[in-house]
Amino acid sequence: MKTTLVALLATVLVTGCGVLGQRTGEEALFSTLSVDENFEVRLYEPLIVAQTVVEGPYLLATRTGYQRLTNYVSGNNLAQQTISANPPSVVRTGSKSKVELTVPYYEEYLDGSWLVSVAMPEAYSLNTLPKPVDDTITFTVLPRLKVAVVRFMGYRSQSLISKKADALTQWMRQNRLSAASPARSAIYDSPWAIPMLRRHEIHISVK
């Protein structure tokens, strides 16, 4: 995998947060097909994704999903195995060690619940991934995907995500791109990072 390529659902190593809660790990493999200011079209390679569904208000539900996935890759699985392509970077919070997820993780609103997901390192297959202790975590294989993207910074909320998704949908119409999925938000920094420095994207798969 080339290190110059960046982003869809976190692939490869489990990494720690960087300065001010921002993550510095590798990102999912993609190639950029076109760029128009804050909008892009990318082609992502296939991924195995760990995912969990959480009901409830946006912030509470997505933080719960984030924590479930963090616990899984940190060793809350039947093999008690830290899931990483390389030795993980660990963040110390008081006397406890915490392994952060790779970047980005994804949030998608489906049928009244939030689907939170993150990609697994490419060294793993569905047969070699350890089984979660938490039975709310499942796995799926995403095919190669063409994805429209809009980038933004700062604090995020359900209403802002909806506004950015509408802007991306309008841009896709102007460029004659047909949506093949609902909008999903891509989160690159810890939910506890300084809001003004957070990096976000909205992704919509393209037919």
Describe this structure as you would to a colleague:
This protein is an alpha+beta fold and 207 residues long. The chain is 16% helix and 32% strand. The chain has one domain: Multidrug-efflux Transporter 1 Regulator Bmrr, Chain A (Alpha-Beta Barrel). A 9-stranded antiparallel beta sheet has the order 1-2-9-11-10-6-7-3-8, with helices on one face. A two-stranded antiparallel ribbon has the order 4-5. The longest helix is centred in the last third of the chain and has 17 residues, at 158-174. The radius of gyration is 16 Å and the shape is globular.
Label this structure with key terms:
2 helices, 207 residues, two-stranded antiparallel sheet, disordered N terminus, 16% helix, Multidrug-efflux Transporter 1 Regulator Bmrr, Chain A, nine-stranded antiparallel beta sheet, alpha+beta, single chain, 11 strands
Q: What is the CATH domain class?
A: Alpha Beta
The total of helices stands at: 2
Q: Find the structural class using helix and strand composition.
A: alpha+beta
Radius of gyration: 16 Å
List unreliable stretches of 5+ residues.
Answer: 1-25, 85-100
What value does the average pLDDT take?
Answer: 79
Strand content: 25-35%
Rounded to the nearest angstrom, the distance between the terminal CA atoms is 25 Å
**Count of individual domains:** 1
Number of strands: 11
Oligomeric state: single chain
| CATH architecture identity | Alpha-Beta Barrel
The backbone outline, from C-alpha atoms, is globular
Main β sheet profile = 9 strands, antiparallel
- Look up the CATH topology: Multidrug-efflux Transporter 1 Regulator Bmrr, Chain A
Tell me the CATH superfamily.
Regulatory factor, effector binding domain
User: In sequence order, what are the helices and strands, one letter per element?
Assistant: EEEHEEEEEEHEE
Strands ordered across the widest β-sheet: 1-2-9-11-10-6-7-3-8
Helical fraction: 10-25%
